[in-house]
Structure formats: C-alpha cells, structure tokens
C-alpha cells in the first residue's frame, strides 16, 4: 500500500529531493540511499550549476532554511519545530531556522468569501456586518481579515488557505515514508526515532489545521489567566468559528518589539518584562499549559503594561509529573545542585537502555562548577537547559518533545526580557514561583490527596486478592499446571559449566592414558632381563598403546573443537 502511494505521488517526492539536492544536500541524500529507494536516477545532474555555485558561500543552516521555505508550509512548520531540538541540530543551524518565514502573497478575496460561505452555509453579508477585503496579514496556512459582527463588535477573522489541507496531508505521507526508510536502513534511525518525530509533527499540524483547537487553547489560557492581572488572550466568537474559520476579538495594542511606540505610549518596559516573565513561568510551572512560540510577533502590549498573547495554535502541555520534573530541574539550576538535575532526568523515563548514572552525574557536576562563580542574575536558564539536554542526549537519553519546546520558549523569553530590561534575569523571576510551588507540593492537602489515592489502590488490591488466590489454588490442583522459573543469564552459566566439565574430562582421560603408558614402560624395564622375545613383545605393546592413546587424544580434541565447548 505504501509503495502504491509512493509512486502515485512520485512527482512530489522528486520535487522535495530536487530542492534539497539543488541547495547542496545531494551527497547526503545519496549516502542515505534515498535516490535508490525512490528509484530516482538523477545523481549525475548535481554538478556545479549556477544554483549550487551560488549556494557554496552559504552556511548549512542558510541552505536548509532556503530549502524548507521553497518547499512550502509543511516544511516551514517542520523547520520551526526542529529548531526547538538542540539535541538534533547544532546552534548555528537552529539560529538560522529561527529566521524561517512563511509569509506569502495573499489569496484572492473571492476565495475567502467562497470558503466562509461554504463553512457557514450562508451569505457573507449575513454573517458579518462589515468585512475588509484587504487582509491584515497573510501566511502560508491562513490569512487574517478585519471585520465587524452584526452586533457591532470589531473582530479578526482567520481564514484557511484553500487547498492547503490536501497539500499538507500529501507532504506528511511523504515524510512518514522517508522517516520509516531512514529508521530501518540507516544508523541515524537507531539514534533518533524519526518515525515518532513525524507522528508528533503530524499531530501538531493537524491541530493547527483545525482552528477549533486554537479556539479551545484560547479558552484554556483565558481560564488560567483569570488568576493573573495584566495578562489576557482574545475572546473567541464560537458561533462564527469552524474548522477552517476562526473569529476572535480585535485587540488594539503595540507589538512587543516596537520600542519607540512603547516609549511614546508611556509604557514601562521593565514592568512589561516582569509581567511577561512571570506569566510564562506561571504557564509552565503552575498551569502546565504554555505558549509554544512566544516571539514578539505573537505578543502585544496594552495600556497599563498588560500582555496579550496571540496565535495560540502551538502550545506545550505538561502533566503533574512533568511539571514536578521541570520544577526539580529548575531548582537544581537555581541552587546549583546536580543531584536534583539527575533525579529530574531519570524521572523523565527517557532512557533507552541502562546508563552509567555516576558518570553522568560527574559530567553534570563539571557543568555545575562552570556556573558556581557566576552570579544568579547572570545565568541564562534557557542556555543551561539546552546544555543539560545535549549532555543527556550524548548518553542516548531522548528528551521529550514538550521539554525541548519548553527550553526554546525560555530562550526566546530571555531574549525578549534582555531587550526590554537588561537588568532583569528570568531565573530570579522563576525562583520565588518555584519555591511556592515546591512548598505546595508538600502541603497537607497535596499529601492528603496522594494518601487517599494510595488507600483506594490498596482497597482495590485487598478486594481482588482473595479471588486471585482462589484462582491460583485451583490452577495448582490442575494436573497440567506447570510453573517455570527462568534465571537471567542462565545460558551463559550453563556454557561455562559445560566447558569446565569438558576440560575436566579431557584432563582425566589424559591422566588415564599417561598412567597406562607409564605402566607399560615400567613393565618393559622390569622384564628386560627375561629374554629378547619378551622385550620385543613389551616394546610392540608400548608402541600400539601409544598409537591408540594418540588416536584417542586427537579424536577427543576434534570432538571438543567441533562442539565449540572448550
């Protein structure tokens, strides 16, 4: 079925391979065996043409970015996601992928109108009182228009680009096929689970294609931010929202990185920086639900230094266990305690095989010592997380995707805070929040919940134990009941014992042959004076005995060597 699908879409396969090859990745593709896998015989075409000559002066990161941008929205999104993986890509490539742009020419208003009317099964003028035909912004997956509801409320309408869903699903099939090939036929598949990465990427993209998920994310943020002052997200108009159309509140504000406008409006950059940092750490540590891409284009500032988060399609989620691990890791960094960091890494349950924990702890200690003399307000928490994750990956510990997204968000946050208020350090902001949550972890209420949960588990065990024991005893009465015990490594022990007995048997046989020959030699010596006939007989017997002993020894050696038991 995969083969049929592959040849049905061979044009797209060829296009993808050609783009990467034209940007200087032809040799790598050839080494991976993808040309042969797809039966694309174009290796000789990648000579020094104009495109390749122009690319020679570009870095690997620049060439990769240009390739992804040329291939369209699926690959742009892929680049944005893998830019959060410092365990896969070097820093210079990640820095280049962070520049990825998916800005494209807007699609015609006729297409916008047709899609909206199709989604709502009504005329555009009946749905919106006003609708601006010129988009506020256009990207590869959607574009945004200003509109007004019949109630008079000003809104922003996000409309999906026609045909984009079909194109993305095609690219996802191609990526899944290539990932499976690389996993099964190259050494890289043993280090990185590319198939799993593509599956996670597919899940992320499908959520972004369904605008209702973004609406639900906005509702979750709204509920979480109800506890906070000076932080908000746009309200969603659900009756004007479908899978391909998202209608949200229009908020007038200033872009976070528009510093002249912020100063002109009399806003305090230091307060903005603190509000932003506190909000991000509350999202991570308190809520376990955080903005996955907090760059300046997705954040606005309102009067009163209030923060508004936009573009909520990409979010990170941490369950209670993951939050506790991140909290422990963060406290380990703040207190420069490598044992806490190690406990958090082990708690991730991401070790593919047994590792030398002591050796890893020593390397964490070395990294910690590098920061011992550095004041807390100068430590870059995002960079420290990336160092920890890179070190963990060198031990084949696969860091969960939500943690790499989290580290990327922290690096972005630190960059924004540094520009807004160079004297503010995000680690200083996170420490009191982390302390508060750490104490909350050991609060009587929390402990009571855990004890209550444990009591319920033990209650279930006590209820089920009698019936389990009764079933076990009945099976014991069955004549066909068998119980098997298997000792780990028993085969290796059996082989060693077998070899010991083989060598012992060999030694006993050699000893027996030696005694017989010695007896013949002694007997021959004692009977030498009895006569020449007896002496000749003894010598003959001795020779025959030596030949027989030699044959026995050779036969025994051959038998042992053939059985490989010596």
UniProtKB/TrEMBL annotation:
InterPro entries: ABC1_dom, Kinase-like_dom_sf, UbiB, UbiB_kinase. It comes from the Bacteria. This is 2-octaprenylphenol hydroxylase. GO terms for biological process: ubiquinone biosynthetic process. The chain crosses the membrane at residues 500-522, 534-561. Residues 99-343 form the ABC1 atypical kinase-like domain. It comes from Geosporobacter subterraneus DSM 17957. Keywords: Cell inner membrane, Cell membrane, Membrane, Transmembrane, Transmembrane helix, Ubiquinone biosynthesis. Coiled coil: none annotated. Pathway: Cofactor biosynthesis; ubiquinone biosynthesis [regulation]. Belongs to the protein kinase superfamily. ADCK protein kinase family. Pfam families: ABC1. PANTHER family: CHAPERONE-ACTIVITY OF BC1 COMPLEX CABC1 -RELATED, PROTEIN ACTIVITY OF BC1 COMPLEX KINASE 7, CHLOROPLASTIC.
């Amino acid at each position: 079925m995969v083969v049929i699908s592959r040849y049905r879409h061979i044009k797209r396969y060829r296009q993808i391979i050609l783009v990467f090859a034209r940007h200087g990745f032809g040799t790598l593709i050839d080494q991976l065996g993808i040309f042969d896998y797809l039966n694309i015989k174009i290796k000789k075409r990648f000579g020094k043409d104009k495109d390749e000559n122009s690319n020679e002066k570009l870095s690997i990161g620049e060439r990769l970015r240009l390739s992804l941008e040329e291939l369209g929205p699926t690959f742009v999104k892929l680049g944005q996601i893998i830019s959060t993986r410092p365990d896969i890509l070097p820093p210079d490539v990640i820095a280049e992928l962070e520049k990825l742009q998916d800005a494209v020419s807007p699609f015609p208003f006729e297409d916008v109108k047709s899609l909206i009317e199709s989604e709502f099964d009504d005329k555009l003028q009946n749905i919106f009182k006003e609708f601006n035909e010129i988009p506020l912004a256009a990207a590869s997956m959607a574009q945004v228009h200003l509109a007004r509801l019949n109630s008079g409320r000003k809104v922003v309408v996000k409309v999906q680009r026609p045909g984009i869903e079909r194109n993305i699903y095609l690219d996802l099939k191609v990526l899944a096929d290539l990932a499976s090939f690389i996993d099964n036929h190259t050494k890289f598949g043993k280090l990185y689970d590319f198939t799993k990465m593509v599956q996670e990427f597919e899940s992320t993209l499908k959520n972004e294609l369904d605008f209702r998920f973004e609406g639900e994310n906005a509702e979750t943020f709204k509920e979480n931010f109800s506890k906070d002052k000076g932080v908000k997200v746009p309200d969603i108009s659900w009756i004007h929202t479908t899978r391909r159309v998202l209608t949200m509140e229009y908020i007038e504000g200033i872009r976070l990185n528009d510093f002249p406008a912020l100063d002109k409006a009399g806003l305090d950059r230091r307060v903005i920086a603190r509000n932003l940092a506190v909000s991000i750490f509350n999202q991570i540590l308190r809520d376990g639900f955080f903005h996955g891409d907090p760059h300046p284009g997705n954040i606005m500032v309102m009067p009163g230094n209030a923060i508004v988060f936009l573009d909520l399609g990409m979010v990170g989620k941490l369950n209670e266990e993951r939050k506790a691990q991140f909290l422990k890791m963060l406290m380990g960094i703040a207190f420069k305690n490598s044992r806490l960091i190690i406990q958090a890494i082990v708690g991730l349950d991401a070790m593919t095989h047994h590792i030398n924990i002591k050796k890893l702890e020593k390397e964490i200690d070395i990294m910690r010592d590098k920061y011992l003399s550095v004041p807390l307000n100068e430590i870059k928490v995002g960079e420290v997380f990336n160092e920890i994750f890179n070190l963990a990956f060198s031990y084949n510990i696969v860091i969960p995707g939500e943690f790499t997204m989290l580290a990327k968000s922290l690096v972005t946050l630190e960059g924004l805070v540094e520009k807004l208020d160079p004297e503010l350090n995000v680690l200083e902001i996170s420490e009191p929040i982390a302390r508060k949550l750490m104490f909350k972890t050991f609060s009587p209420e929390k402990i009571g919940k855990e004890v209550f949960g444990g009591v319920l588990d033990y209650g279930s065990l006590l209820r089920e134990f009698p019936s389990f024991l009764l079933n076990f005893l009945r099976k014991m009465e069955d004549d066909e009941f068998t119980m098997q015990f298997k000792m780990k490594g028993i085969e290796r022990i059996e082989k060693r014992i077998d070899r010991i007995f083989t060598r012992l048997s060999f030694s006993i046989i050699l000893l027996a042959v030696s005694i017989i020959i010695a007896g013949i030699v002694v007997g021959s010596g004692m009977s030498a004076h009895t006569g020449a006939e007896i002496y000749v007989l003894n010598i003959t017997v001795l020779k025959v005995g030596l030949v027989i002993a030699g044959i026995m020894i050779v036969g025994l050696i051959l038998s042992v060597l053939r059985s490989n038991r010596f």
